[in-house]
Design a protein that fits this description.
The chain has 9 helices and 8 strands. By secondary structure, the chain is of the alpha/beta class. The protein has 2 domains: 139 residues, 3-Layer(aba) Sandwich (Rossmann fold), CATH 3.40.50; 62 residues. It has a 6-stranded parallel beta sheet with strand order 5-4-1-6-7-8, with helices on both faces. A two-stranded antiparallel ribbon has the order 2-3. The longest helix has 16 residues. It is globular, with a radius of gyration of 17 Å. InterPro entries: HAD-like_hydrolase_sf (IPR050155), HAD-like_sf (IPR036412), HAD-SF_hydro_IA (IPR006439), HAD_2 (IPR041492), HAD_sf (IPR023214), PGP-like_dom2 (IPR023198). It catalyses: 2-phosphoglycolate + H2O = glycolate + phosphate.
């Protein structure tokens, strides 16, 4: 029996809010001459289940190409300035890896940023796949990313076990939509989850998966 754990990245494995905020505010100032937003506002906006991020961030109805290009150019350098792994995450990943658990990442961030950040934090090698929104037709809560990863492992629902670990409703719904179990991580961007399985410390994931 294979055991597979798929992790969200931002707000689950790593705290990246400072650099996201810096890059969003850079675009706001450069392209729109708008005042800066707080980290709290930006994190709350990102985690909303239904939202129009271009409107919230740049006061535009759609994500304009000039904003996307400038954000990605700036964030490519900015994204490794301040991110850090949440306490206990590296130990949790290493313990699962040693026990033969298959580990992957499914993030709504572009794959290039995820790879850059996880390599910078010296954990990229623990994952078999790192899948960003650019690698699938639809991002979470659509199950495309999870299906892509499960297919890579030749997952068999009748004999294998798989979990999605994330910090917001999109992660939980993507797990439900893919027919796998979900674990809500309450140490990251969202402290409160309504899901039935809520963990407050990464070591709890080890206990759940290895039991």
């Amino acid at each position: 029996m294979k055991k597979i754990v798929i992790f969200d990245m931002d707000g689950t494995l790593i705290d990246s809010k400072k650099d996201i905020t810096i890059s969003v505010n850079y675009v706001r100032k450069t392209n729109h001459n708008l005042p800066p937003l707080s980290e709290e506002f930006i994190v709350d906006a990102i985690n909303k289940e239904v939202r129009n991020l271009p409107k919230l961030f740049y006061n535009t109805e759609i994500y304009e190409e000039k904003d996307r290009i400038l954000f990605e150019k700036h964030y490519k350098e900015q994204c490794i300035e301040h991110p850090y792994l949440y306490e206990g995450v590296q130990e949790m990943l290493e313990r699962l890896h040693v026990k033969g658990v298959k580990l992957s990442v499914a993030t709504n961030a572009p794959t290039q940023f995820a790879l850059t950040m996880l390599e910078h934090l010296h954990v990229a090698d623990l994952f078999d796949m790192i899948v960003g929104a650019d690698k699938v037709q639809a991002s979470k809560p659509h199950p495309d990313m999870i299906h892509k990863i499960l297919n890579f492992y030749n997952y068999d629902a009748k004999k294998d076990k798989a979990w999605m670990v994330g910090d917001n409703s999109k992660d939980i719904k993507s797990a439900h939509n893919a027919g796998i179990e979900a674990i809500f991580a309450a140490w990251g961007f969202s402290a409160h989850g309504t899901h039935s399985v809520v963990v407050k410390d990464p070591k709890e994931i080890v206990d759940i998966v290895l039991q």
